[in-house]
């Protein structure tokens, strides 16, 4: 039986009070709840405080370039569909530098669990406004205030992504449950997680979130697309948490590739003769 302790405890470089601590604990709890041992899962991360998270527990990890988490994770899943692939990224990494890849992933529907640490600021590079920063948010890079924010969950629901959820680090058990549901979903599972940045975001604090976040009522139907569209735009005095939209589990990206009908690419062997014939087309 897998436990959270199987993923180890490591010294981190995060600021005391950072929301990443609670999120890291929730991810371990979710992996244990899904009975996924460290060797059965692989994480892909980019650049940022969020991207450091998989470095702080025992797991398979590819740490790549800023904004390039989703294409790497998609390729990893294509190479080995039997591996559970998770993406750990931030609001800047995923929605800013990686915005084009975010849109492509919503269209392709790769079987990935995408965990977005959303603190509404670029924390690693000292506090610039991110795509999700509140309108008017000021920083040294945006002294006149940030423009209107991107609503990534509205984008995902508009494109009818299969699994769209929002969590908050102040509700750790609820958050772990959302991540575990995302792990169990076959297709793209997007989990946007609200968290505080104690160093650079003095507006959206833990207290600010805690006063506004509420869990969706038991009668809420995540299959209702129109209801989901209304909830993803609910922001301000009240912020809904939970699975906002869940569509049917349709065709995932790796189902479209005939080569995978023979099994994982990892287990297939290509003859040198076949490779030479293919290469001849390029000379």
Would you give an account of this structure?
By secondary structure, this protein is α/β, with parallel strands linked by helices. It has one domain: 3-Layer(aba) Sandwich (Rossmann fold), CATH 3.40.50.970. The protein contains 9 helices and 8 strands. It has helices at residues 20-33, 69-79, 91-97, 99-108, 152-158, 172-184, 206-212, 225-232, 272-279, and strands at residues 41-45, 60-63, 84-90, 113-118, 163-168, 189-194, 213-215, 239-246. An 8-stranded mixed β-sheet has the order 2-1-3-4-6-5-8-7, sandwiched between helices. Strand 7 (213-215), helix 8 (225-232) and strand 8 form a beta-alpha-beta unit. The model has no long low-confidence stretch (mean pLDDT 92).
Key words describing this protein structure:
single chain, 283 residues, alpha/beta, Rossmann fold, eight-stranded mixed sheet, 8 strands, globular
